[in-house]
Every structure is written in structure tokens, then in C-alpha cells.
Amino acid sequence: METVLSIQKLTKNFGKLCAVNNIDLEVKRGQVFGMLGPNGSGKTTTLGMLMGVVNPTSGSFSWFGQLPTHLMRKKIGAVLEHPIFYPYLSGQKNLELMAMIKEAPVTNIPKVLELVELSGRKDDKYKTYSLGMKQRLAIASALLNDPIVLMSVSGGKSLAFRRRL
């Protein structure tokens, strides 16, 4: 079975604080993997390193047996902590912008909106969405490029899993 994610001795220090300490992990295609722990235990920092938004202090990781690159990250959908969208744009317009940034087909937008049950509110401005709707729009955005891997962090708990549209 193909290895999707391989982590070796991944570490992140912020000054004297060790946020992530020598993580070793291997996740195979089709596996569901969750990271649970209290706030401040390094879950978000770990996923931030895996997505290239936080630089590791030491250690390494690979996606699909390759070093991480911008192109490799297109196979990965991520929702890290707080969704950020333009408040005065509709859900639809925000997703169109995200599709352009991700170079994903806009034809995926109706599918992902239906999947997260926001089709009926797609033309409403993002600022009118409830917190749950904002989180669902973030998931829709992460699914736009039909990723092999979906990673999500919310409410102090982190999950990484595979989902195909």
C-alpha cells in the first residue's frame, strides 16, 4: 500500500519552547488518522509544518514519497484553524476566487457546495454565515482541487483523512 505521508524526527522549537518533539509517523493510502490532544500540544504546529506554512526546526517529511513542493501540495486540501474569506463576497464568489488561486476547475464548485450543504446559501455574503457555515465553506474550499488528502484542524482537535469526491 502506497505511503501518503512519512515523517521522520519532525521537531519545532519556538525559542526555548519545544512545540513538536521528534515525531515519527507513516500514513498509508486509505487510512484515517487523527491527532488528539489538549490545546497547545502541537497539533496545529505539526499540520502547519506539513503544509509548508511553519518551518520545522529539524527533521523531515515527504508526501507520496517525494519532498514537499508547491505542486505536491495541490494533492492536499487543508483547513487550518480559522477560515479566512472575504466577508462582502458570497460563498460562491469566495470559492471562485479560491479555485483561481488553486488552479482548480470552477466546475467543482457546485459539487463541493452540495457536499457541505451550502448550495442554498451560495449567493449570500460570507459575513452572514454562521460559524458552522463558515467552517463548511472552508471544507468546500479545501475540496475544490479534488485532493487525495484532506487535513483539518478545529476546536483544539486535528484530523487528517482521505476523501475523494
Structure, described:
This protein is an alpha+beta fold and 165 residues long. It has 2 domains: 3-73, Rossmann fold (3-Layer(aba) Sandwich), CATH 3.40.50.300; 91-143. Helices cover 27% and strands 30% of the residues. It has 5 helices and 7 strands; from the N terminus they run βββαβαβαααββ. The protein has helices at residues 43-50, 70-73, 91-102, 109-115, 131-143, and strands at residues 3-14, 17-28, 33-35, 58-63, 76-80, 149-154, 157-161. The strands form 2 sheets. The protein has a 4-stranded mixed beta sheet, sandwiched between helices. Strands 2-1-4 form a 3-stranded antiparallel beta sheet, with helices on one face. The chain starts with a strand and ends with a strand. Residues 156-165 have low confidence and may be disordered.
User: Architecture of the largest domain in CATH?
Assistant: 3-Layer(aba) Sandwich
Low-confidence stretches: 156-165
Number of domains: 2
Order of helices and strands: EEEHEHEHHHEE
Radius of gyration: 16 Å
Determine the N-to-C terminus distance. Answer: 21 Å
* Major sheet attributes: 4 strands, mixed
- SS class: alpha+beta
Residue fraction in strands: 25-35%
Physical arrangement of strands within the biggest beta sheet: 3-7-6-5
Tell me the total number of β-strands.
7
